[in-house]
Every structure is written in C-alpha cells, then in structure tokens.
Write a structure and sequence with these properties.
single chain; about 150 residues; alpha+beta; Immunoglobulin-like; four-stranded antiparallel beta sheet; four-stranded mixed beta sheet; about 40% strand; elongated; DUF1573; Ig-like_fold
C-alpha cells in the first residue's frame, strides 16, 4: 500500500509539473519606439601610423517614430573614447557618434563600443579595428642607423 501511495504521489507531482503554463519572456516592442540604424557597424582604420588622428565617426539614422535618446556609451577599453550626441535625434533625422582611438599604442586593435538608448534594441554594439604601425620615417632612420654601423 505504501508503494502504491508513493507511486501515486510521484505521478501526481510529475503531472502537476508538466501541467504548468509555459511562460515565455517575450519583450513587447513598442511600434512607436525609436529605431537606430547605422550606416556601418564596423569601422576599419586599416594600417595607420602611430600617433595619427584616431578620430572616426559612426553615422546613424533614427528610423523610428519617436525621438531617440542615447543615454550612455561604453567602450571596451580606456584607449577608446566615444562621444555621444547631447540632444535627442528626432524621427527621420541623422546622428553621429564620434570615437577616438589612442593611436600611440602599436599593434592591432579590435574594440567594441556599446550604445545604450531608448531604441527598440536598447543596447547596440559597434566595433573599430585596425593596425597601428611605427611611422615610416622612424623605420627608415632605424634601418640607416643599423646599416651605417
């Protein structure tokens, strides 16, 4: 009898667990919300000289139906400084995010910039990448110093 009651209890618990409503964590998107669309999500600096101008601009458009407010921009490294727009970007209007990479560091880089806003996609990632090389004049001076010895 104990086995029957135990099996009946286990069956009841199993049935109860399976009978629970399957809830999904769907996020409802406001059809009037702002939408941020970038011209490009990756800016490739290519090969640039050390201490060259590290400023680049991500251009975007608010294709939504309400003002786009960028609340915060965060970079993956202190060597990358993003500058957010101060004013809201109205529907149908263009905006820019200026990014400055510290080109005093030699070698390759691949950095992520995360934009936080009131858009349908509340956080959006864009990237910069490239290779910082020694200035050509410094390389020539080093070669001539080695060959004159």
């Amino acid at each position: 009898m104990k086995k029957f009651v135990t099996l009946l209890f286990i069956g009841f618990v199993t049935f109860s667990i399976n009978a629970q409503e399957n809830k999904t964590n769907e996020v409802k998107v406001d059809p009037n919300a702002p939408v941020i669309e970038f011209e490009t999500e990756v800016i490739d600096y290519g090969k640039i000289e050390q201490n060259a101008d590290g400023v680049r601009v991500f251009k975007f458009k608010n294709t939504g139906k309400s003002p786009l407010i960028i609340s915060r921009i965060q970079s993956s490294c202190g060597c990358t400084v993003p500058k957010k727009p101060k004013d809201p970007i109205m529907p149908g209007k263009d905006g820019e995010i200026e990014v400055k990479y510290a080109t005093n560091r030699l070698g390759g880089f691949n950095k992520t910039i995360t934009i936080f806003s009131n858009a349908t996609e509340p956080s959006k990632r864009v990237r910069i990448k490239g290779i910082v090389l020694k200035p050509e004049s410094a390389v020539v001076k080093q070669r001539s110093a080695v060959s004159s010895k």
